[in-house]
Amino acid sequence: MTHYTATITHFKNQPIGIGLANDPNYGLVITSIAPAPEGALGESCLKKGMKLLTINNIDVSGLPSKEVVKILKDVEGKLVLSAENVIPADITFEVGKHYRRPDGVIVHGTMKNDMNSAMPTIFKEAGVPSTAYSRIYKLIESDLKPPAADLRIHEITLDREFGSYVRKQMVKGGVVGYGSESRHEKMFYEMVLKSAHLERNVDLKAMEVMMQVNAMLAKYNLMAT
Questions:
Q1: Is the pLDDT at 89 greater than 50, yes or no?
Q2: What angle do CA 112, 47, 158 make, to 5 degrees?
Q3: For the whole model, what pTM was predicted?
Q4: How far apart are CA 116 and CA 151, in angstroms?
Q5: Short-list 219, 222, 211, 210, CA closest to 89
Q6: Residue 14 Cα distances to 11, 18, 70, angstroms
């Protein structure tokens, strides 16, 4: 997986403009990057949805987000942050029935979320040029990855709020009638609705990307699914 590094000069207690949250599956995830000039990382290669790995070569990926924020605020001088992508942007390519390898086997391949990896074997066998692979990869990065990152970040927040809701509200018992919901319940309901909206947005983007990818691959008898 590709690693990204950002280097800035930081003064103690100076705002950096980075939001962090702990994800049970991916670790310490960047939830926001403030744009420049408000945020010192606004023009860096770090993006929302990445996993923060190190600060000045010290592993922070397993630390609580609040502790990492404090570390960032206390550092003075050179500040080096490294991160990696955690939001998958995989897409599977299936060979058309009339296309077979010389040995007669119909093969399957996967395009990984790593531009630096070798072009999938299935592309080479079908005669897809590297320029086409590059266009497909960049299309996934630009159109599909952002909404997928938004959904994952919202899911992290929703899980946290649900845990708080269970501890503070549901344990009290009782029936809540329409119009008498607590502030916490209303916020939770709104977050659930937003989650459904974000999921639909990802599905729609995935369909749009798949149609564009299939248009590029049609002449090579490949189909994205």
A1: no
A2: 90
A3: 0.51
A4: 26
A5: 210
A6: 5, 12, 12
